[in-house]
């Protein structure tokens, strides 16, 4: 099987090993094929896709998927490239906390619901605050593993803003652990990605103070 090194569209200069035969664009099914797959899953669940209440369900599900997974068609550069420097010399950390997000776990395709705290140390320029929340959403709206999502957000902000440091903490509930499997309710998972100055304890402490209020 041929394998090629390609530039990852979302991580700038990071190189990823990809299977040359796994061309995502050409592998993408038509809407009709996706709707047929939903009918198959309905039959798998024990349902009759032809009954009245389910007739429009395949259309609704494929429409919902466009929303759940819209992050595949987005690029962090588009979100984070607009910066500004007129901030009266402000050169301290910026912390945006409690950013809610909805994602889906790549193992079971069920929701991951949580919040992210994102901080960066500007390098002369700042970015619009909403863009940090949009960056969280971009990666959330893909199939995810929480550790990967945490690292992807940190990578994107570090690379696009050339920040002196980045901190990303995610606290999330995995519904594959609540509504199936081990059935552990009220359990959340916390992941961290600290880059640059946030690896120094004084900055890390200030970050946690800001997050914990
Ligand atoms: N590290 C990590 N694990 C995750 C994440 N989301 C789901 N998982 C875990 O992925 C694992 C998949 O395990 P498997 O044994 O392959 O699948 P499974 O039989 O459905 O596992 P159970 O959930 O234990 O029933 C499970 O332990 C999930 O809890 C995540 O974001 N990060
Ligand atoms: Zn899962």
TrEMBL record:
Pathway membership: Cofactor biosynthesis; 7,8-dihydroneopterin triphosphate biosynthesis; 7,8-dihydroneopterin triphosphate from GTP: step 1/1
The enzyme's E.C. designation: 3.5.4.16
GO molecular-function term, one example from the UniProt record: GTP binding
Reaction catalyzed: GTP + H2O = 7,8-dihydroneopterin 3'-triphosphate + formate + H(+)
GO biological process annotation, one example: tetrahydrobiopterin biosynthetic process
Keywords: GTP-binding, Hydrolase, Metal-binding, Nucleotide-binding, One-carbon metabolism, Zinc
Enzyme class label: hydrolase
InterPro entries the record matches: GTP-CH-I_C/QueF (IPR043133), GTP-CH-I_N (IPR043134), GTP_CycHdrlase_I (IPR001474), GTP_CycHdrlase_I_CS (IPR018234), GTP_CycHdrlase_I_dom (IPR020602)
UniProt-listed Pfam families: GTP_cyclohydroI
Family as reported in the entry's similarity comment: Belongs to the GTP cyclohydrolase I family.
PANTHER family attached to this UniProt entry: GTP CYCLOHYDROLASE 1 (PTHR11109:SF7), GTP CYCLOHYDROLASE I (PTHR11109)
Record's subunit section: Toroid-shaped homodecamer, composed of two pentamers of five dimers. Homopolymer.
Name of the featured protein: GTP cyclohydrolase 1
Organism expressing this protein natively: Temperatibacter marinus
Lineage of producing organism: Bacteria, Pseudomonadati, Pseudomonadota, Alphaproteobacteria, Kordiimonadales
């Amino acid at each position: 099987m041929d394998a090629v090194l390609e530039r990852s569209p979302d991580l700038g200069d990071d190189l990823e090993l990809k299977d040359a035969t796994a061309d995502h664009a050409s592998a993408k099914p038509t809407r009709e094929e996706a709707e047929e797959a939903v009918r198959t899953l309905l039959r798998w669940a024990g349902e009759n896709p032809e009954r009245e209440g389910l007739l429009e369900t395949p259309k609704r599900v494929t429409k919902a998927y466009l929303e759940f997974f819209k992050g595949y068609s987005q690029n962090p550069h588009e979100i984070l490239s607009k910066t500004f420097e007129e901030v009266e010399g402000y050169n301290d950390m910026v912390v945006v906390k409690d950013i809610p997000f909805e994602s889906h776990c790549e193992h079971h395709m069920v929701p991951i619901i949580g919040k992210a705290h994102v901080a960066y140390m500007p390098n002369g320029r700042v970015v619009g605050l909403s863009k940090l929340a949009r960056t969280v959403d971009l990666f959330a709206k893909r199939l995810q593993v929480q550790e990967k999502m945490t690292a992807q957000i940190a990578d994107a902000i570090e690379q696009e803003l050339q920040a002196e440091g980045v901190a990303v903490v995610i606290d999330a509930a995995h519904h594959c652990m609540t509504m199936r499997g081990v059935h552990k309710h009220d359990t959340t998972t916390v992941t961290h990605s600290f880059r640059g100055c946030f690896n120094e304890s004084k900055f890390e402490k200030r970050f946690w103070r800001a997050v914990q209020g």
